[in-house]
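Action item from last week, closing it out:
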Amino acid sequence: MDLFQNPFHILGASTRDNRHRISELAEERSLLFDPNTCMDARSDLTNPRKRLSAEVAWLPGIAPKRAEELMSLLESSPEDLLRLEKLPSISKTNLIATALGRLSDLNTEILADWITVISLGFECIDPEDMRGIINEERIVSGFPEVSDLQSVEFEIQERRKFFCVVIKSALDKMSPKDLVKTITNAVELLTHDGEEQGPILIDDIVDSYEIEAQCLLQNRKGQSCKVKFPTIASGESPELQKGH
């Protein structure tokens, strides 16, 4: 889910609101918006296990007032989010990914920059730190603390999948030539021209397109083909390999 689909946004709730306040907000919002959506959001935020998904996909570690300001900025000037500093990695990455999903007419260099920021942001997310931030907010809101680190790690991996979907959606709007160029630019930025190992998220993106390209091209009658994207560790240039 992106930030606008998050139960906290749907109800206008903060991570510091208790069960009673969440129920009040759900009742108020149901008078203006779809009641079922509001009740589902209330259920997600009052059930400790479901709540964890919403927390990790929201803006953990950010004060309610600041969260409102960031959501307003997301709607009015999403490009400005790239310049924000001193935000928890998960929160900034959630903001950038949501913004990217709403941008259009991105050229290869600009999109490569967005991919770079998301990839590096995800790389900085630490499960133990995340659990600490969430538990601090749960103490204030009266919800039981998260003791199982694996559940936090699972939700972080769910964000990894979401970030990949957002990036691929933006890339898929480009021509094949620009798509390959954008990925190549991102790989070069993230690996310092092949001198360093790239973040896992860009590795996911490259792998997914290699698989898709191989399946597409190999299904053509009489061809055995694959598109080779830049190797993460070497910065190798993309090429089209064919065999008949």
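Closing note: Residues 221-227, 233-244 have pLDDT under 50 and may be disordered.
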